[in-house]
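Hey, resending since the last one bounced:
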Amino acid sequence: MSHRHRASALALSVVLLAPAAALAQDTLISPRASASMAHALAGVTLATPVEPSRLALLPAVTTEAATSSQPGEFLPASGPRRGNAAKAFFADVGRDYVAWFNLDTARTLGIGAAGAWAVSYADAPVKDGNPFEDLTRVSQGGQQYGNLSIQLPLAVGWWAVGSAMGSGRHAEAGRDLLRAQISAMSWTYAIKYTVGRTRPNGDPRSFPSGHASAAFATATVLQRHYGWKLGLPAYALGAFTAATRIADNKHWASDVIMGAAVGITAGRAVTMRMGGRNIRMSPAAAPGGLMMQFSVE
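The C-alpha cells again:
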C-alpha cells in the first residue's frame, strides 16, 4: 500500500477518534490537561480535499463533555430504582428515547452529520484506494466486536457480574451499556430504513454503520463511568471496528462517521445525568482538506 493511502488511513482513523474523545467524559484528566488534549487534537486533516462550498456551510458547535468529582464516581440512574426492576429499566429506556430530543443531542448529531457530509466527498476515493487494505487480514475482529451478538451479552454480563459482586458502580455501568445498545440499535435502523443507501458491495442499508454505532455507544458509556483508563482503549476498538467495515467494503467512510456519532449520542443519552463541561468544535480550511478545531471552555 502506498504512503498516500497509509496517510489517508491514519487521517480517517484520527477523524473517527477525535470527536469521540472531545465529546466524552473528562474524569481522569485535569482541566489543564483537557485543554492540552484539545489543542493536540486541533489540526485533524482529511487526506482528500473538501470543496470550499461545503466547508462554508459547516457550523461551529459547542457540546458538553461530562465530568464528575471523582473518576468512576457512582451516580444513581435517572429513573425509579424501587419496585419492579424490569419495569424501572424499561421506563428508563423510554426516557432514553425522549433524551434524544434536546440541544445536546442536536449538537452531537450535528457534528456527526456535518462530518459525514463533508467526508462523503471522499467516499469514492477511499473505496477505490482502500486505505485500510492491510486490516482485511484481521477484519474479523472488528466484524465480531461491533456485532450485537457480542455487544448485548457484554452489556448484560457486565450488569449481572456487577450485581452479583454487590457493586452498584459496576452494575450501573452494565445497565447503562444495555440501555445504550438498545438506543443505538433503534436509531441506527430507523435511519438505515429511512435513507436506504446502498453499500459499496451492493447490499442495502448502508447508512449509518450499525457496527460503528454499537462500538462507539459502548465506548462512550465506559468512558463516562470509568474515565479514560477504559474509555481510550474502548474508543480505539470503536475506530478499529469502523475501519474494518471500510476495509471489507461493507460501508462508505461517511457511513462509519455517522455511525460513530449515533453511538456517541446513545451513550450520552443514557448517562446525561452525569453532568458536563463544554467543548467547542469548529471546522476550518487546511492545506489539502478539512481541519476540526477543539477547545475546552
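Residues 3-296 form one domain.

Sorry for the duplicate.
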